[in-house]
Amino acid sequence: MVDLTEEERAAVTATMKRVALLMDEIGWQTAFADLTEAQVRALIEEAVESFREAMSDIAKANAPEIPF
Predict the structure, then answer these.
(1) How far apart are the C-alpha atoms of 53 and 55, rounded to whole Å?
(2) CA Rg, the chain, in Å?
């Protein structure tokens, strides 16, 4: 089991929301085994990109202001 930080947990939550939107397009009733290669790739790419963006946004929000 991975011990996630609070920031990583927040990023996972943001990622879940974006992946869910993609699943709405694909159809929640679609079995994983029935997904096309393109659909699986799209889900993985969305998850990775969403997580990276969320972690970046969190880091920016937590960064101290530079006074110059």
Answers:
(1) 5
(2) 15
